[in-house]
Amino acid sequence: MMIDFTFHNPAKIIFGRDSLSHLAQEILNYGTRVLVVYGGGSIKRIGLYDEVMESLNSIAASFWELSGVQPNPRLSLVYEGIDICKKNGVELVLAVGGGSVIDTAKAIANGACYGGDVWDLYLGKASNECALPLGTVVTIPAAGSEMSFSSVITREEDSCKVGRNSPFNVPKFSILNPEYTYSLPPYQTAAGCVDIMAHLMERYFTQIQHVELTDRMMEGALVTMLHNSPIVMADPTNYDARAEIMWTGCLAHNSLFQTGRIGDWASHKLEHELSALYDIAHGAGLAIMFPAWMKYVLPRSGAKKLAQFATRVLGVPEDLGTEEDIAYEGIARLEGFYRSLDMPVRLHEAGIDDRDFDRMAQRCADLVGGTIGAFVPLSASDAVEIYKLAL
Ligand code: NZQ
Ligand code: ZN
């Protein structure tokens, strides 16, 4: 039976070629003292930085800049941002970039209104009662952070990567112009597509029955990704395909598809250990971990849902054989699709061996209180077996 839910996502999405023209007014809705957060320089190369500066100057905003956010964003930069906000009475945090920039901005916006150590919020040891408003200008469709409740930060001393969900993490507004994604390197484009698909699949694999509407919406979204991902790999400036992917990425993680069901998220937790320790792109890690997770849970969950996924999303013929045969063929096709995007599908292809399996599995289990995932609840020793399958 569909489980009870409340769905409330107040993020305003401004989408399309002309969307940045709304930025100045959106900022003004929250103030004129702005912290602008961005990454390693891509926004300057594509001219977006200048456009954002123009918007800020047009409303005579006072602004501070925090640049240098790295993929798999680090806690130390979050502390710097919080400090700037507190010292200068910042009224709005503006993230210009991808998931790493947005997640850093989320941590800063929360930490700026909290008296203690922001990391305690991530560890679940404390809670905050307010946050600074946050706006985003998105440059890579992937993490879905522009509309999600999550922020994922890595504490560099011990490579501990932790996600935190909170209503205070939902941006007030997000500006999405598919043209800003034309400049993405193929590897980042592909990793983003894999991550978007993973956000759908984490929710798709549930033991909750009678969730047909969300099943079918996600199947549609996944087919949209299968269709458009190869198009942007071959033709990076294809507006139509970039737009389909960008909007799918946003919807895939805004919790609409989570309604009435319990998602799994084991593959994400297993992946976060990889990107924390080896600093690979989150999406590349998911291309490795998701198929391995599927292979491991298949005999333990019954093949029905995996077979449904295989037929409806990947077009495996229903008369191929048993449900199990169909499910395995679906996993093989998914791996083939990831390979076609030049993503790694085994750990060794990403230069990772088995030396940290025990450590990653144990921390993964510890961070979630012992049980990883929900479709098939897994222990640390199950996690080790999944890493072995991924080798
Ligand atoms: O730093 P710059 O120079 O901007 O380069 C970035 C970065 O190197 C580059 N890039 C971004 N837009 C570009 C561009 N290069 C050229 N042209 C553009 N238009 O891409 C690289 C990756 O950026 P990043 O922000 O790290 O990518 P992504 O959006 O995939 O974010 C990944 C992070 O989000 C977390 C991941 O774990 C990872 O830390 N996640 C956050 C979630 C959330 N908050 O809801 C959910 C996800 O499951 C995920 O865990
Ligand atoms: Zn993800």
Word description of this protein:
- The chain is α/β, with parallel strands linked by helices and 391 residues long.
- The protein has 15 helices and eight strands.
- The chain has two domains: 12-180, Rossmann fold (3-Layer(aba) Sandwich), CATH 3.40.50; 184-390, Dehydroquinate synthase-like - alpha domain (Dehydroquinate synthase-like, alpha domain, Up-down Bundle), CATH 1.20.1090.10.
- The strands form two sheets. Strands 1-8-5-4-2-3 form a six-stranded parallel beta sheet, sandwiched between helices. The protein has a two-stranded antiparallel sheet with strand order 6-7.
- Helix 7 runs parallel beside helix 11 (282-301) and helix 8 (212-234) runs antiparallel to helix 9 (239-252).
- 5,6-dihydroxy-NADP binds next to helix 2, helix 5, strand 6, helix 7 and helix 10.
